[in-house]
Backbone:
């Protein structure tokens, strides 16, 4: 446990010391800010509260920003250790590989959650701007569900990025392959769920599309099937990352 | 301390280590010598438990590297070849991080880090960022890291590579000091290095251990015969003919010097045959200004060992 905590601390420190973290933060915060302005203008034009609430966590801007942003956070994790050769010095101490993988996962997930912090400010602004009689807006339940969705989807994306990084010593390769897989699947599932004319494909798409899931979470719908889906996929990618690191390719 | 038995390691395209066996006793300082690509790093990585082997067994301090990997790692201080460090960390931060990973108790950590910094001459650079340190200092940080959990055995993979001559001397001095308290296995392809530091030499070539002995013994074995240098004032062809006529002597090389003297390198069955050469000079009436046995460096030994096996180093 102590070892895990040291690794986790080191991971966070490295993350916040890297310039890429602040570049990512700048763009993501600009994006969430723009998204919030859009939400407010929708409200001003008389859009329903439900539709406006969805924009909080799942506007199309955010849905397609995450597959870009997360590989930029995770590309470093193992690729850099391989490049520097520090993976060798880590694995010749009594560090266990699952400890190492989990600490990197936790570090990247915490940084990802920091990216979402401005949402608290936006929720506060909303609650000050819309003191509608008898309506609680923004709805506390929807906010909590949205937060859960953000962590679940982010957890899966981080584990995918981590896995890609564990396969290579080249950060660019890790980032691009992570981006291709995440963006491709997000887009593909969204197309299946919303544009397919065949109803069976549409149903499968809605089961798997992170876009659809985030819509549900933002409306306050927490479906246990979705939770199981994300947790099991995350576990699968973490497990394959452990195996990839244990293969110890120099 | 180390017991390697019949270890083989295959890479997809080639055999890196071919059925090697050797032992290193407690307190020894052993040089692991071989040309680049001979299998030194692979062997050291297997010792440190980083690479699995295909067959054979390795014991370190009585623990099997495969079965008790964590026990083995606790007892080894391993400095990988490129001395990998995190460039964004400060020296103190890095050593603290490594001490935590290696399970140095938090009560002892501060004192231990101060001790290894003192040993490795890092006391003044604790607050410096590793990426801004010179190569020599980084090497010392790597050494301090390998010492921080007080291991019984130090495995140092090319500890002086890429350093300037002054830094090399400093690192060698440091390693010699460490030998008082630790068993050391160090690899290098630089011959002077083992001559300067090591008590015993293991020579590896193309994945095989080709020699394992003290430096003097290796010399003695390989140079039962001697090379004698002789400078005389004599006519070249005549002198060579006369020397070759003696049994057990053979002129390997001869050179007419610009000042009129003749210099010959003569292979002899024993260095004592200098007496025969002196007597020859007396009977022939040659004036003699030099007669000496050539000193052999480890380099000759090494070249000879590898050449005997039909490979060029």
Residues:
């Amino acid at each position: 446990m102590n070892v895990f905590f040291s690794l986790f601390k080191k991971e966070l420190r490295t993350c916040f010391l890297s310039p890429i973290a602040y570049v990512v933060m700048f763009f993501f915060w600009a994006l969430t800010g723009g998204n919030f302005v859009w939400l407010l203008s929708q409200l001003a034009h008389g859009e329903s509260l439900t539709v406006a609430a969805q924009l909080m966590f799942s506007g199309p801007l955010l849905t397609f920003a995450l597959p870009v942003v997360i590989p930029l956070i995770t590309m470093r994790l193992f690729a850099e250790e391989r490049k520097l050769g520090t993976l060798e010095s880590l694995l010749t101490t009594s560090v266990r590989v699952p400890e190492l993988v989990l600490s990197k996962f936790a570090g990247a997930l915490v940084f990802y959650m920091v990216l979402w912090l401005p949402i608290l400010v936006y929720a506060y602004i909303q609650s000050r701007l819309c003191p509608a009689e008898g309506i609680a807006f923004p709805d506390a339940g929807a906010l909590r569900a949205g937060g859960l969705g953000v962590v679940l989807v982010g957890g899966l994306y981080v584990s995918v990025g981590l896995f890609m990084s564990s396969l290579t010593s080249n950060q660019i390769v890790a980032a691009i392959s992570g981006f291709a897989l995440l963006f491709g699947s997000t887009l593909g599932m969204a197309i299946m769920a919303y544009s397919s004319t065949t109803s069976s494909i549409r149903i499968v798409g809605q089961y798997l599309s992170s876009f659809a899931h985030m819509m549900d979470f933002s409306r306050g719908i927490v479906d246990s099937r979705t939770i199981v889906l994300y947790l099991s996929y995350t576990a699968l990618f973490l497990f394959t990352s452990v195996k990839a690191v244990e293969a110890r390719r120099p | 301390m180390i017991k390697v038995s019949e270890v083989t390691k295959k890479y997809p395209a080639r055999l890196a280590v071919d059925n090697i066996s050797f032992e290193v006793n407690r307190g020894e300082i052993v040089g692991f010598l071989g040309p680049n690509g001979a299998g030194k790093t692979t062997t050291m990585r297997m010792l440190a438990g980083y690479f699995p082997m295909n067959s054979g067994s390795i014991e370190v301090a009585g623990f099997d590297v495969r079965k008790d990997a964590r026990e083995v790692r606790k007892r080894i201080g391993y400095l990988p070849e490129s001395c990998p460090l995190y460039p964004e960390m400060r020296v103190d931060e890095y050593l603290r991080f490594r001490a935590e990973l290696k399970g140095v108790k938090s009560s002892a950590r501060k004192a231990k880090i101060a001790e290894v910094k003192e040993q490795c001459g890092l006391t003044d650079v604790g607050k410096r960022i590793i990426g801004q340190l010179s190569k020599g200092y980084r090497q010392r940080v790597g050494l301090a890291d390998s010492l921080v959990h007080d291991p019984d055995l130090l495995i140092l993979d090319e500890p002086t590579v890429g350093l300037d001559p002054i830094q090399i001397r400093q690192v060698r001095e440091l390693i010699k000091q460490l030998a008082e308290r630790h068993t050391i296995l160090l690899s290098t392809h630089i011959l002077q290095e083992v001559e300067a530091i090591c008590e015993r030499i293991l020579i590896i070539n193309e994945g095989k251990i080709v020699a394992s002995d003290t430096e003097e013994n290796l010399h003695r074995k390989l140079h039962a015969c001697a090379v004698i240098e002789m400078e005389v004032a004599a006519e070249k062809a005549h002198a060579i003919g006369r020397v070759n006529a003696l049994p057990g002597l053979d002129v390997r090389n001869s050179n007419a010097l610009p000042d009129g003297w003749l210099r010959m390198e003569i292979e002899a069955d024993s260095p004592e045959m200098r007496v025969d050469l002196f007597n020859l000079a007396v009977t022939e009436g040659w004036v003699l200004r030099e007669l000496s046995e050539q000193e052999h460096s480890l380099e000759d030994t090494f070249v000879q060992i590898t050449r005997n096996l039909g490979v060029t180093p």
